[in-house]
Design brief:
The protein is an alpha/beta fold and about 375 residues long. It has 2 domains: about 5-250, 3-Layer(aba) Sandwich (Aspartate Aminotransferase, domain 2), CATH 3.40.640.10; about 250-375, Alpha-Beta Complex (Aspartate Aminotransferase, domain 1), CATH 3.90.1150. Helix content is about 35%, strand content about 15%. It contains 13 helices and 12 strands. The chain has helices at about 5-15, 55-70, 80-90, 105-115, 130-135, 160-165, 180-185, 220-230, 240-250, 250-270, 290-295, 310-320, 365-375, and strands at about 70-75, 95-100, 120-125, 140-145, 170-175, 195, 210-215, 275-280, 305-310, 325, 335-340, 355-360. The strands form 2 sheets. Strands 1-7-6-5-4-2-3 form a 7-stranded mixed β-sheet, with helices on both faces. The chain has a 5-stranded mixed β-sheet with strand order 8-9-12-11-10. Strand 2, helix 4 (about 105-115) and strand 3 (about 120-125) form a beta-alpha-beta unit. Helix 2 packs parallel to helix 9. It is globular. The chain starts with 6 loop residues before the first helix and ends with a helix. The structure holds pyridoxal-5'-phosphate. The site of pyridoxal-5'-phosphate (PLP) has 14 residues, from helix 3.
Length: about 375
C-alpha cells in the first residue's frame, strides 16, 4: 500500500494484492480461530488466536489507516465499542469534554459509566469555541467532537478545536461517521483520532457492523486501545472485516451519489411550506456552512434532518406516509431511511419533537422528492 496514490485508487484497490496462495483477486476470508505456533508459542506469521488479531482484520486496518492518513487503524465489533474502548483507555482522574450533539449512545455511556471508571465528563457545544475554551480544565485529556453531527448536522471547526485541545495538553477525537474519509480528513486538520461507525457508509450495504479508530500517532493511547481490545474481546469477526473492506472499494462513488441526492432533497424540503427547518451543511443558510465548505471536500454528505411544522404528531404522520423512505434506524446504506429520532433516543439526549432524520440513499432523486411531496401533501 503506497501513500502516493490518490484516494479513489486506494479505495478501489482496498490494499488487496492477489492472494499469494491462489492468485485470487478478492481477498480470502480466513475464519480460523487459532493459528499454529512454535512449541515456545512464537508466532512466525504473527497470528495466535483470532481475538488477538487475524488476517482479514489486519488487511482492513491497513487500508483504514491509509484512507484517513493515520499511523494506525483499529477495527472493532461496533462503532460503540470503538468509542467506549477509547474512553476506557483514559487514565482515571481524566476529564472528557463531549459535544452536546454527540451520537446518543456515547452520551449514554458517558452518563452512566464514566464516573465508575474515575473519569469526569462535561457536555459542551463544540460549535462555540469560546464555550470550549471555558470548559477546558487542568484534567481535560480528550475533546470528543462529531461533525457533521447526528442528528442535527451541527458542524464544528476541527482545526480550531485541535488547537484548543493541544494548548491544554489534550487530544481531539472526531467522530467522522457522517462525512467518511471521502469528504473529511480530520487528522490532516490536526485531530489526533478519527472514529467511524463502519456499520454506516464504510460497510455501505446495511449488512455488517463495525467500528473504527484511526490514530495520527501510534502512541501509548493507541497501544492501550489495542491491548483493551485484545483482552476484552471487542474484536469484530473476520467476515465483518471482509465485508467492510469490500464496501470501501466503492465508497467514493457511493458518497458522490449520496451527496448529490441529499442536495436535491434538501433543496426541495427548503421550499416546502410545512417544513420549518432543514439541517444540511450544504445549504448556504446552515450556520455551519462556511466551516463545512472549508473543511469538507467534494460534498456535504448524504445525511440530513428536517423539522415538520406541528411538532411530534405532524412528524410521525409524515414519517408514516412515506413509501420509498423506510422507517428504520441506522444510515449509510443504499436505500433511503427515515427516523423520528426523539422516539428512539436515550433520555440523556432529546432531538426536537418535530425532527425527522433522513439517510438519503442511492435511488433516483426524482423518486425521493416525489415520495416526500406526497407525504408532506
Ligand atoms: C451509528 C453511529 C455510531 C455508533 O455505531 P454502531 O456501529 O451502531 O455501534 C457512532 N457515531 C455515529 C455518528 C453514528 O451514527
Amino acid at each position: 500500500m503506497t501513500r502516493t496514490r490518490h484516494f479513489d485508487t486506494l479505495a478501489a484497490h482496498a490494499g488487496v494484492a492477489p492472494d499469494p496462495a491462489s492468485g485470487a483477486l478478492a481477498p480470502p476470508l480466513q475464519l480460523a480461530t487459532t493459528f499454529e505456533h512454535a512449541p515456545d508459542a512464537a508466532t512466525p506469521l504473527g497470528y495466535l488466536y483470532q481475538r488477538y488479531g487475524n488476517p482479514n482484520q489486519a488487511q482492513l486496518e491497513q487500508v483504514l489507516a491509509s484512507l484517513d492518513g493515520g499511523a494506525r487503524g483499529m477495527f472493532f465489533a461496533t462503532g460503540m465499542t470503538a468509542g467506549t474502548t477509547l474512553m476506557q483507555a483514559l487514565e482515571p482522574g481524566s476529564e472528557l469534554l463531549i459535544a452536546d450533539d454527540t451520537y446518543f449512545g456515547y452520551r449514554a455511556v458517558a452518563g452512566q459509566w464514566l464516573a465508575r471508571w474515575g473519569i469526569r465528563h462535561t457536555v459542551v457545544d463544540m460549535t462555540d469555541l469560546d464555550a470550549v475554551r471555558a470548559a477546558v480544565g487542568p484534567d481535560t485529556r480528550l475533546l470528543w467532537a462529531e461533525t457533521p453531527s447526528n442528528p442535527l448536522l451541527k458542524v464544528c471547526d476541527i482545526a480550531a478545536l485541535a488547537d484548543i485541545a493541544h494548548g491544554a495538553g489534550a487530544r481531539l477525537l472526531v467522530d467522522g461517521t457522517f462525512a467518511t474519509p471521502v469528504l473529511q480528513q480530520p487528522l490532516a486538520l490536526g485531530a489526533d483520532i478519527v472514529l467511524h461507525s463502519a456499520t454506516k457508509y464504510l460497510g455501505g450495504h446495511g449488512d455488517v457492523m463495525g467500528g473504527v479508530l484511526v490514530f495520527a500517532a501510534d502512541d501509548g493511547l493507541a497501544a492501550a486501545c489495542h491491548e483493551l481490545r485484545r483482552q476484552t474481546g471487542n474484536t469484530a469477526s473476520p467476515f465483518a472485516a471482509w465485508l467492510v473492506l469490500r464496501g470501501l472499494r466503492t465508497l467514493p462513488v457511493r458518497i458522490e451519489r449520496h451527496c448529490r441526492n441529499a442536495a436535491a432533497v434538501a433543496e426541495y424540503l427548503s421550499s416546502h411550506p410545512r417544513v420549518q427547518a432543514v439541517h444540511w451543511p450544504g445549504l448556504a443558510s446552515h450556520p455551519g456552512h462556511a466551516v463545512a465548505a472549508r473543511q469538507m471536500h467534494g460534498g456535504f454528505g448524504g445525511m440530513l434532518s428536517f423539522e415538520v411544522a406541528g411538532g411530534r404528531d405532524a412528524a410521525l404522520d409524515v414519517a408514516g406516509r412515506l413509501r420509498l423512505f423506510t422507517n428504520a434506524t441506522s444510515l449509510g446504506s443504499t436505500e433511503s431511511l427515515v427516523e423520528h429520532r426523539a422516539s428512539i433516543e436515550a433520555p440523556q439526549k432529546q432531538s426536537p419533537p418535530g425532527l425527522l432524520r433522513l439517510s438519503v440513499g442511492l435511488e433516483d432523486p426524482r423518486d425521493l422528492v416525489e415520495d416526500l411531496a406526497q407525504a408532506l401533501g
